[in-house]
Design a protein that fits this description.
By secondary structure, this protein is an alpha+beta fold. It is built from seven helices and 18 strands. It starts with a strand and ends with a helix.
Length: about 350
Amino acid sequence: MDKSVTLEVDGEEMQIHTLASTVDGALESAGLSAAEHDALAPAADTKIDSGGTISLKRGRLLKMKLDGKPLELWTTALTVDDALRQLGMRADGAKMSADRSRRIPLEGMELELRTSKVITVLDGGGQPRTIPTNAATVEELLQQMNLKLDKDDQVNPGVKSSLKNGLSVEILRISIVEKEEDQDVKAPEEKTDDPESPKGKITVIEQGADGKKHVKLRITSTNGKVTKTDVLAEKVLTEAKKRIIKVGTKKATAPGVGSGVWDQIAQCEATGNWAINTGNGYYGGLQFDAQTWNANGGGAYASRADLASREEQIAIGEKVRARRGGSFSAWPGCQAKLGLP
């Protein structure tokens, strides 16, 4: 049965008459067919009735360069602007090789598109600059900004890197210079222990002397600050002379306080009687009990403190005081009375 069908091809309508019963048959009767990338509605095997409508949107190949990268995309859109929307491409502020309103031929077309981006540029440690651009690579951005690179400068990311919106580009300004100069050579120092001198005391045996050398240097600076110094060559002009010193290692002991202080303690403890023995268990001018006397080596002088000489008792007193960190706390009453440490 003859049917009258509306055929819409790429937005243009035509009326056809056909004896076909399906969509693909109707297309064939009009000398058309649906290819792989075409959009057909209804589907090819759908039954048709008189008065029906068939829509055929034919696919078009876009051979694109998107920010410098080749890309092949199919679209059923009829214009460049519609194709970009259909493909979901951000095109605000973009630069294109064809007008947005240009119709895409059935055989397709080539299209170059450079998207709009905002890039942050830091040059040589200066203040960041925000740059709007359609450049595809770091190299193109630098050309746009008229920024030239010296042979040792570095860029991160590299000049061939693609740009993306929001990217930061840092330029490191590298300076490499060579120079020659004379430098002091510090005298080497030889240290030996001196067990007879107080700890830390330095005695110079030989003064020594600094030397001189001539050096050739390679100095690398990054953004105006020296970051590396390499010695390329050096020559000794004057040999340094060794400095020889002795360093005291003798541990400090509680300093002697002189016999006068001990006489004051003996006066306080035993009325100044170095041979006193009252029978209370404490003996001599410093009133040692037997345990303290013997524990500190008093037995080497006498069996009890009152039997030892004044000097021997003072010697044991110094030992007791040293064990207490230089304090007279073994004689607390007299310590307080005499204002001793």
